[in-house]
Specification:
The complex is a heterodimer of chains A (80) and B (191). Chain A is of the alpha+beta class and 80 residues long. Chain A is built from 3 helices and 3 strands. Chain A has a 3-stranded mixed beta sheet, with helices on one face. The radius of gyration of chain A is 12 Å and the shape is globular. Classes of the chains: A alpha+beta (80), B alpha+beta (191). The interface between A and B is medium-sized, with 19 and 20 residues.
C-alpha cells in the first residue's frame, strides 16, 4: 500500500510519471524502506528546494503508514 | 463629439460579457472571450479539480474515507477533505502532515497548469478551527498590549497563521509586525 501511495504522490508532480518506480526493501526487523527511482530530469523536482518536497513526501507517507516506521530513499542514477 | 466614443465602448464591453458562457461544455483551456475575473475563477476551479483527483487517489490507496469539498475564496482554490473520523493522521502534530500534503497538492496542480498555485488545503476542519483560535489569540494579545502598555510577542507561526493574527489585530484597531526569521518568525502586537 505504501509503495503505491508514494508512487501516486510522485507521479502527480513529475514530467515523466511513467518512469516512476518505488520498491519496498525490508531491513530485517528494522522497518521497511521505500526506494524511489525517477527520471533523472525529475530528480530536482522530487527533492525540491532544500529537500522540501522530499521531506513533504516522507511526512505524508509516514502519516499513512500503519506503524509510522518507514524510510524513503531517493536513488541517484548510479545507485540503480 | 467625444461622448460618442464612450457609448461605443460600453456597447463593446456588453458584447464581451454576453459571450462568456459560450463554451461551457468544452474542457478546452482556451475559451474565446471571457472577462478576466471569470477566467480567473475557472482557473481556480480547475486547480480544485486537479487537487481533488490527486487527493482522492491517495485516499483510495491508503483506504481512508473522506469526501472532498471544493470552493474558491479570496482568489484561492480551497480544498477540504472532510467527513471521516480517521483523518487526524493527515493533519499531524501542529498540522505538519497537512502542510506537507498541501505542498504536494500545490505541486501537482502546478505540474498540470504550469502556474504556481496558492491553493489552501484543509483536513477535518483543522485550519478552520485554527483560524478561530488564532483570531482569539490576536484579540487576547491586543487586550494585554492595551492594559499593560507594552508590546506583546506571540509564539512562532507560519506566514498564513501570522496573516490571520495580523488581521485580528487590525480589526481590534491596533498595530502588529513580524519579527525573527523563518521558521521562527512571530507576531508582535504594538500598543
Amino acid at each position: 500500500m505504501l509503495d503505491a501511495a508514494l508512487e501516486h504522490l510522485i507521479r502527480g508532480i513529475v514530467d515523466n510519471p511513467e518512469d516512476v518506480e518505488v520498491n519496498t526493501r525490508n531491513n530485517r526487523g528494522r522497518g521497511n524502506t521505500l526506494d524511489v527511482i525517477v527520471n533523472p530530469d525529475d530528480m530536482g523536482r522530487v527533492i525540491g528546494r532544500q529537500g522540501r518536497t522530499a521531506n513533504a513526501l516522507r511526512t505524508v507517507i509516514k502519516a499513512v503508514s500503519p506503524n509510522g516506521s518507514i524510510g524513503v530513499n531517493f536513488l541517484d542514477v548510479d545507485e540503480r | 463629439m467625444t461622448s460618442d466614443e464612450s457609448v461605443t465602448e460600453e456597447v463593446e464591453v456588453d458584447v464581451v460579457e454576453e459571450d462568456v458562457q459560450e463554451d461551457v461544455e468544452s474542457t478546452d483551456d482556451k475559451p474565446k472571450k471571457q472577462s478576466k475575473s471569470e477566467k480567473r475563477f475557472e482557473q481556480l476551479e480547475r486547480e480544485g479539480d486537479i487537487a481533488a483527483d490527486y487527493l482522492e487517489g491517495l485516499l483510495d490507496i491508503a483506504d481512508l474515507d473522506g469526501d472532498i469539498d471544493m470552493d474558491v475564496e479570496a482568489d484561492r482554490a480551497m480544498v477540504a477533505i472532510v467527513g471521516a473520523d480517521n483523518l487526524d493522521q493527515l493533519v499531524g502534530d501542529n498540522g505538519k502532515t497537512l502542510d506537507a500534503l498541501q505542498e504536494l497538492t500545490r505541486l501537482a496542480v502546478t505540474q498540470q497548469t504550469g502556474e504556481r498555485s496558492r491553493l489552501m488545503l484543509d483536513v477535518a476542519g483543522y485550519r478552520a478551527g485554527r483560524r478561530e483560535l488564532l483570531t482569539e489569540m490576536g484579540q487576547e494579545a491586543c487586550r494585554r498590549a492595551k492594559e499593560e502598555g507594552t508590546s506583546v510577542s506571540l509564539s512562532p507561526m507560519t506566514p498564513y497563521e501570522r496573516k490571520i493574527v495580523h488581521d485580528a489585530v487590525a480589526d481590534a484597531g491596533l498595530k502588529s509586525e513580524s519579527e525573527g526569521s523563518e521558521p521562527n518568525r512571530y507576531v508582535v502586537v504594538v500598543p
